[in-house]
Amino acid sequence: MPRSVNSVAKRARRKKVLKQAKGYFGRRKNVWTVAKNAVDKAMQYSYRDRRVKKRTFRSLWIMRINAGARQHGMSYSKFMGKLKANNIELNRKVLADLAMNNPEAFEAIVNKVK
What we know:
- Belongs to the bacterial ribosomal protein bL20 family.
- The protein is mostly helical.
- It has helices spanning 7-20, 32-70, 76-85, 92-101, 103-113.
- The protein is rod-shaped.
């Protein structure tokens, strides 16, 4: 009985990986074994960093809110505590945007919670 190999699927699999490796430097873009390892590692990084991105944005928003609150004589933690006490339910993303792009509105919020 002749040996059965599925070259069509094998080639398709390799083409898919090499297409994902497009733009990589050196042998990582065109040598199958190197490209496969590079793409696997890139996928691990992308999975991890989709979660890390959420953390970094949250910390950026906190920094911006803190800077805006300190301009009006209040620390970040006191500001957020007073927001909760006054039942003002604005999330950090919106507050950071107001502090950055609309300081008058942010100042009105700070004055309301003081």
